[in-house]
């Protein structure tokens, strides 16, 4: 430790970190990395990780400090690993999200079995190209369902319906997606869910009428009447 102090005075920070680790002065070593911008790679991160023999509460705090330092350096995957070792899974998934590793986010959420983590993972996955990936789409639905985040799940199905209309002109599939959204909204007794359900019911009715109009091309009079009614609505 005294050798480490000496090296700090001569701005030999990386060497000082190694000596502080040898002296088990983990907090000083982590602070040294944070203040003097000593890059923490995976090898150094493992050195800065106390053994299981240390007092559990003290070890957790050191791991959290290490994770914070890694996060500040932009090493989000490593920060997630250290938060996980510290038992802070919510911060761990947040770091994984910032790392942009979609597969790691899905895997982490799957094994965590925690409602807040499910929701955070699903929110992140919605920002990805879920339209082109059945795996991501299924993961979003699964995570929101397990988290019982029915409002968010209904909102996702609503987005799916809009994609079916905008990109594929498939109004039947859009109605199916909106009916799924409505099904989950009915499981939520909040006022927001009730208002959203009322709005969706009207959308489903309007789209159904439009589908009926499309199917009535051999009966121009009926088709025009339905379209006029839709315009009035």
Question: What would your notes on this structure say?
Answer:
This protein has 233 residues and is mostly helical. Helix content is 78%, strand content 0%. It has helices at residues 2-9, 13-22, 26-36, 42-47, 56-72, 76-85, 89-99, 102-112, 115-126, 134-147, 150-168, 171-185, 191-214, 220-232. The longest helix is centred in the C-terminal third of the chain and has 24 residues, at 191-214. It starts with a helix and ends with a helix.
Protein traits:
233 residues
Helix content class:
over 70%
Structural class, by secondary structure, is mainly alpha
Ends distance: 79 Å
For the residues shown, what is the average pLDDT?
95
Overall geometry comes to elongated
**Largest sheet geometry:** none
Q: How are helices and strands ordered from N to C?
A: HHHHHHHHHHHHHH
């Amino acid at each position: 430790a005294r050798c480490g102090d000496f090296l700090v005075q001569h701005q030999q920070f990386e060497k000082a970190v190694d000596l502080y680790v040898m002296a088990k002065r983990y907090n000083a070593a982590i602070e040294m990395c944070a203040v003097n911008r000593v890059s923490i790679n995976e090898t150094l991160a493992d050195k800065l990780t106390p053994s299981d023999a240390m007092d559990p509460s003290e070890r957790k705090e050191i791991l959290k400090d290490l994770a914070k330092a890694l996060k500040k350096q932009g090493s989000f995957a490593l920060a997630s690993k250290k938060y996980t070792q510290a038992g802070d899974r919510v911060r761990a998934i947040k770091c994984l999200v910032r790392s942009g590793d979609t597969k790691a986010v899905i895997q982490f959420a799957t094994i965590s079995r925690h409602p807040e983590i499910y929701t955070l993972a699903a929110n992140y996955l919605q920002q990805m190209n879920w339209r082109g990936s059945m795996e991501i789409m299924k993961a979003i639905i699964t995570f929101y369902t397990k988290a019982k985040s029915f409002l968010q799940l209904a909102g996702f199905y609503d987005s799916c319906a809009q994609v079916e209309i905008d990109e594929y002109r498939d109004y039947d599939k859009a109605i199916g997606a909106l009916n799924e959204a409505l099904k989950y909204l009915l499981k939520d007794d909040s006022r927001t869910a009730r208002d959203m359900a009322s709005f969706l019911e009207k959308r489903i009715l309007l789209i159904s009428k439009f589908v009926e109009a499309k199917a009535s091309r051999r009966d121009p009079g009926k088709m025009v009447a339905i379209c006029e009614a839709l315009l009035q609505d």
